[in-house]
Amino acid sequence: EVQLVESGGGLVQAGGSLRLSCATSGFSFGDYAIGWFRQAPGKEHEGVLCIATPYYTESVKGRFTISSDNVRNTFYLQINNLIPDDTAVYYCAAHPSWAGIPCQPNEYSFWGQGTQVTVSS
Hints:
By secondary structure, the protein is an all-beta fold. The chain has strands spanning 3-7, 10-13, 18-25, 32-39, 46-51, 59-61, 64-69, 74-79, 88-96, 110-111, 115-120.
C-alpha cells in the first residue's frame, strides 16, 4: 500500500525556516515521481517543487529545496526566508512514472494528508 505521511508544519514568523517531511512506504523512489504542492486560502492547488524519476536529487528553486532520503524512504521540503504568502496547506505526493511528469496536482495520484504552514508578519 502506497502511503505518504507529512509532518513539520506550524506557525512561524516571517524570515524563519521550516523543513517539511514526507515519510513514505509501499513504493520505490526510482519508479515514482515525487513532489510538493500547496493550497493557500482561496487559491487553487499548485505545484511547488517536484523531482523527476527515475533519477532524483536535491533541487533548488528560489527559497525552496526538495530532497530525498532513500534509506528512510522520506523526502523533504526545506523552505527558507518564509513570507506570509507562503501560508498554505502543503502536501507531498507521488505517482508511478517512467519519466518526468509535469509538476501539477492533476498528474499525481498518491497524496499525504497535508500539513499547515502559517507565516506571521
